[in-house]
Structure formats: C-alpha cells, structure tokens
Specification:
Structural class: mainly alpha
Shape: globular
Radius of gyration: 21 Å
Strand content: under 5%
Helix content: 55-70%
Number of strands: 6
Number of helices: 14
Distance between the termini: 34 Å
Largest sheet: 2 strands, parallel
Amino acid sequence: MKKPMIRYKNEGPFFIALRREVKSYFSALRINKFANLNWYIKAVLLGILYMSTYAFMLIWGDNAGAVLIAYGILGALTIIIGLNIGHDAAHMAISPNKGVNNFFLKVFDVLGTSSKVWRMRHVYGHHPFPNVIHFDEDIAQSRLLRIFPKDKMEWFHKYQHLYAPIIMVLVYTLNWMFIRDFVDSKRKMIGTRKVNRSTKVGVLRLLFNKLFFLIFILGIPIWMHGHIGQFLLGYLIMHICSGLVVSVALVSAHIGDYQEFPVPDEDGLLPYSWGEHQLATTSDFCTDSWVFNSLFGGFNHHVIHHLFPNVNHIHYPALTQILRDTAKRFGIPYHCEQNLLKVFTSHFNLLKNQGFHAWQQEFDI
C-alpha cells in the first residue's frame, strides 16, 4: 500500500533562533561541525579495547569464566562502537570528506551487519518523521509490540509490558544479525524514500560479512580450544549484553510516556513544525553523566542530534545547553531525565498504557 504524503507546519521562530545560536557557537570558537582529535582518539581506543578483549578471550579460551566475561564485554563494545563511530559516519558527521565517513561506516560490516542497510533504515526510515506511525521504521519493528496509540490492537499486547523487555534483551541483536538485514535489503521503500533493492551481489556480500564475523567470533575460538558449548553460550551472552546496551539507547530516546506520537490530519499535515516535532518526540537522558557522554556517542543528547543530525556528537554537550536556553526562551518543552531508572519506568508505563490499559478501554473491561 502506497504511503500518503505528510508534511510539517511552516518552521516557527524557535528553530530559526536555535540554528542561529548554533552557527554562532561554531563561529565564535572557530571550529567546524565535524570530528575533532578527541573523537579520533576515542575511536582508536575503542578499536584497541575490542581487539584486546578478543585476544584475551583467545588466550584464556580454556577458562570458562574468562570466556563468558570477554563475550559480555565484546557484546557491549559492539553497540558502543556502533553508537560512537558508525552512527556519526552514517550521518556524514565525521569529516567533510565522504570517503572518510564511508571508511568508518564499515564498522557495521566488520561487526556482522550491513552498513548500507542500516544507514538507509536509520537516515531514511527514522529521522524524517520520528514517532509517526507508518513512517518511523526504527520504532515499529515488530507486530509483537504496540507503541503507537493509533496502531492495531492484538490480544497479546495486554502483556507486552511483561514480555517486551525480555525480547529486547534476548533477541534484538540476534534478529538484526540473522533476519532484519536480509528483510530490509529486499525492500523497495524505507520510510518515505524509494531505495534500490540489493542485487544478488549485494546479498552475497551481506552473507559474506556475516559469515566472516561468525568465523571471527565463534569459528576461530572453537578451532583453537574446542569447548563448543562454552563458546556458544558466550555468543548468546554477547547478544544479551548487546541487547542491554542498545535498549538503553533506544527506549530512552523515543519510547516513553512523556514523548508524543503525532498524527497527521486528513490533509497529511502534522501538528508541529519540523523543529518543534523533534522536541515533542525525542528526549535526552543522563546528559550530566561523564560515563554516558563518553560511551553513548551522543545518544543521550538525542534531541540536539535530531535537530542537527550532521553535527558530530563530540559537540552535543555544548549544543544541548544552547538548546535548553533557547527552548526555555520560547516556551518550548524540552525533556531530559537524569535518573536512568525513571527512564525505564517511563518506557514500562508506555508499554502498559498502549497494551494492558488500552485493551481495557477498548473492550470496556
């Protein structure tokens, strides 16, 4: 079914002023919007840490405890590398040189996924219309979950607040590895954009990337040490740890009970301008935390990222302060939660409201 055309209201004074303030920030400091030396140092250190953990696992491959811990660290690092390096690369925010961005974008391919497919899904299927039903591909990933208030209700959604966190942690990255990339590679449209379906060569390249990664992460350790069950368990733990880290990034940014899910009117007009829509649908978390600022690649400064997606995340803490001040001046709500427990409580409340409570209201139970 062809998606209807939707559009935003004309941009208001808030985003015009914010854009002017951000431009003044870069001009005053005589810096550009791309990566600085600190970004490259962090990228190198993350690569060294990943390979050192892998080498540790190979050296101590006969020690089950060491192997399982190493796999857990590798799982977390996989997402952290994706957030800090691959995400900026997908938005062409590392360098004005396209080749540099494409080089770092390959981290997705090296880690067993598809850089091409992920970039299309994220840049075309999420950023244009975040939290808009039928248009935001990142939010609507499975019929098992009912996130949008206008989405179809299924009987099992009554229990989604109970099973969704388990699914997110256990199978999110496994599904990404073995199913989602292949499904997305065959699609003709992502979000509002027509895309070229992967050719046979493209599918073979995707298969090769995944096979290479499986040989790297499972085949070589098993060949060196045996202990098949031990390494398979470690591989599962790796995906669980990946799921834990990615769940913090994803649910904190868009899927809580204080984020909105705007619906266009009968003429396809959304209730906000583009800039105001980003604040209504996106939230920040733990922006005062040095740990989260260092490890999450700007995902905890997600509002400013949606407003300026082509700016490198290394600048987000400073730009978020400009955003706070400008939003306050114009009376535009800006959401940020410093307590991570409250972030997950908000996500749990949304799942329950769109599942259990919505079911009760619809069927007058």
